[in-house]
Amino acid sequence: MIIPVHIRGKTAVCPDSVSVVNGNSDVIISFTFDREWDDSANKTAVIQYNSFGTIVTESIPFSGDYCRLPVISGTDEITIGVIAGNIRTAAPFRIPCRHAITDYPSKNAPVLTDIYNQIMEHIAMQPEPAEPVLLLRDADGFALRDADGFALRVGG
To answer: What pLDDT score does 78 carry?
Structure first.
């Protein structure tokens, strides 16, 4: 997911339709800066949110026009601003967040972050495939036979 952000006149603006689902690592913020930022190759995105009652502030240095949003959890919104040298966005933007199932950890079934091992365990628990069954038609009708040719059911 790419979030477009425009910074004009020291104010960051993001489309109202944008929201983030907590717990995801594929969110990229794509910035467009006005000329005031032309001399600032290195910038820092400052992300702040309230996670389960604790204020979290994360600084993400970046060069160019984009940065990756860190994985967030337990919040309804994040606030993002950009710092470069002595230029600061006077008005950061807010993005609403939607809670993910991982925001509500269960005591009975901990969330596994090792997807590979989780898939391998799932495959290992699958039952062995049954012996192949052949459906043969003869003069008496249909006869259901197993792989060794023994009749299991005869009928029309």
So the answer is: 94
Integer Cα distance of 41 and 85 in angstroms: 10
Domain edges within the chain: 2-103, 126-156
φ, ψ of residue 37 in degrees (nearest 5): -100, 0
Positions of E strands within 1-156: 2-8, 11-13, 20-21, 28-33, 42-51, 54-63, 66-68, 77-84, 87-88, 93-98, 133-138, 141-146, 151-155
The CATH architecture that domain 2-103 belongs to is: Sandwich (2.60)
Confirm if 54 and 27 have CB atoms less than 8 A apart.
Answer: no
Judge whether 99 and 22 are in contact, CB under 8 Å.
yes
Q: How far apart are CA 49 and CA 81, in angstroms?
A: 12
Residue 121: pLDDT band (50, 70, 90) is: confident
